[in-house]
């Protein structure tokens, strides 16, 4: 989402390249470019001016150490200001009450129902017993969609398809949760417009009746500055607790994510991208600032690995690698776990320096499919013993997987090269350290 902004900020910092110190003249030029980059990204003009004025004030008079350049210093100052702009500290979701109630509100088409499913999955992974509640009584497919998502993440869905009173449905769901030991109730509501008085009254009644521990306003980040204006209108009426930004993988300017906190004075609590139920992240202002400035987000990448990689499986694979027994079954297992971590381009963008390198590269998550098809077309014996794959077997695998013999040979060569590298590393004594580095759970 922030590719364009990152590129423009990088160009702004280049104006200080070769400069020995920060002066009023060179900082004025750089700050002007930063302000322009923020406004182009759809950040509110007033907010962009406030932020750049703060950057200018902090930069002037700073002594540039011999170990860093003026550009590096300004990057650090800008990172700090972007972090403050987006809230400074990350704020966790509040789960008070027994059960805790989370009310989901937002515009039509903002992704509320999908986010409700993702949040249920997120809380379930933390060991919480969750109940999803279908209170969108207007959109015909809303209840069915929530049921599909509930089944997908293994969470019960409470629904009364014939009932057209959202408040009664929510109250009944709460009673059901108490009887069945559900610790968290997520209430998915109908999309509404801030100008629709009847619909706004309904969500206000729901909040009054349920007294939720959290009311989250879900907003489509692709709507740009309109997202900020809508959030303000909803907050004036609902006084919600936090914001959720969805569709963060969209190709848009992303200014809403930068200015929404400053305008509505409510924290961004989650960001979400894509349709995968695992594609939900707690929002960390400092990490987002780091990604915007092209410095990556290694902490989030490691956390994703820890959440999605099975500890026992990781140890088992480590042991097999050290004994040079890694086979195609293990390779397939690793692919499955990597896919659970989310969108590949987003993951690569968390690696410092990679964001710019892959900016214009189309990384399709489906690129794994031919590899999986080839491996799944092998017999169990062939997966364990790739050396047995002669010409006739390769032809059979190519036909069975819908690929070519060249693709099969290419995969086999890459796999063999990888095994040779592992063998060499083990002989040199570096294998253990390298493999431990790959394993987020350590030894």
If you had to describe this structure to a student in words, what would you say it looks like?
This protein is an alpha/beta fold and 443 residues long. It has 3 domains: 3-85, SRP54, nucleotide-binding domain (Four Helix Bundle (Hemerythrin (Met), subunit A), Up-down Bundle); 100-286, Rossmann fold; 302-438, 434 Repressor (Amino-terminal Domain) (Orthogonal Bundle). It is built from 21 helices and 8 strands. It has helices spanning 3-14, 24-40, 45-59, 70-85, 112-125, 142-153, 166-179, 197-210, 225-238, 255-264, 285-292, 298-308, 311-322, 328-340, 344-349, 354-357, 369-376, 380-384, 391-401, 405-428, 431-438; strands at 100-106, 130-135, 156-158, 184-189, 214-220, 242-246, 268-272, 280-282. An 8-stranded mixed beta sheet has the order 3-2-4-1-5-6-7-8, with helices on both faces. Helix 2 (24-40) packs antiparallel against helix 3 (45-59), helix 3 (45-59) packs across helix 4 and helix 7 packs parallel to helix 8.
Name its key features.
443 residues; alpha/beta; Four Helix Bundle (Hemerythrin (Met), subunit A); Rossmann fold; 434 Repressor (Amino-terminal Domain); eight-stranded mixed β-sheet; 21 helices; 8 strands
